[in-house]
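Below is how a single chain appears once it has passed through the pipeline. First comes the sequence as given, then the structure the pipeline wrote out for it. We keep one example in the README because the format questions we get most often are answered faster by looking than by reading.
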Amino acid sequence: MKKVLICATTGIFGNIIASLLGGWTGNLNTMLFMMAADWITGLIVAGVFKKSTKTENGKLNSSVGLKGLCKKGMMLLLVVVAHRFDLTIGTGYIRDTVIIALIVNEAISLLENAKLMGVRIPKVIYNAIEVIKNEKEIESESEDI
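Resulting structure:
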């Protein structure tokens, strides 16, 4: 009985969150993955490599970690707001554009963390980020016409 209650509660909250975010899409999934990867690699940079640019000594700092989580929460809130704009205006691209912008932002941060770890970044990764940025800019401009 307890297991059923936990599953039902989790399902209800998951459905509410997915609904607030405008549904579960591949773009949203990618954004959430990038957010988690960025946060985890940030912890590794500070905790293992002691090279964080967010602290004076480069080491882990709980208040910096909390600020990072708050920023991730704000990103999710921006997706909710963008979805509400889409519903209000009757469009379907504001949310997607915000998600793509956040994916690019997280990808850049992830690459910065990788560099701090000493990882050499293949040029194709930078090219992919530019392609995504350019496609969304072109798509946004064409929908304004």
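The radius of gyration is 18 Å.

See the next section for the split statistics.
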